[in-house]
Amino acid sequence: MFNKSRKKLVNSIKDVVKSVLRENGYTQTYIPFERHSNEYVVKHSKISYPVCDYGLPIPPVELRSGYETDDKEFIENSRQDIKNLIEIAERSGMKFEQTKTILDFGCSSGRMIRSLKPYADTKEIWGRM
Length: 129
Fold this sequence. Notes:
Blueprint: H1 2-23, E1 31-32, E2 40-41, H2 71-91, E3 101-105, E4 124-128
Parallel strand pairs: 3-4
Antiparallel strand pairs: 1-2
């Protein structure tokens, strides 16, 4: 029963994402990263989206999972959240500078992952929806 409901939910989310991508200029369908995976590669769009000062595209409001509608607030709040996350982790004894891999589990539209870009030269950074 649970697996059927989960599969139905996953398919419904995929349909919404496909629809939003098409409405925002992504004419190609998104491609599974691996055969039976929920991870996807989206082909580059001809539409030019705004980018943050790290050079990463800012997702359309429809893909922000209810987060800020203002681009600047979207980025600034994610930076503050990353700063808070690092402070909390270090207070609990983790040495952030020694960390080699970061997983943003439940990354959604990648709001916080954009603010991890400055660490990409020294750390492996992953996002998992």
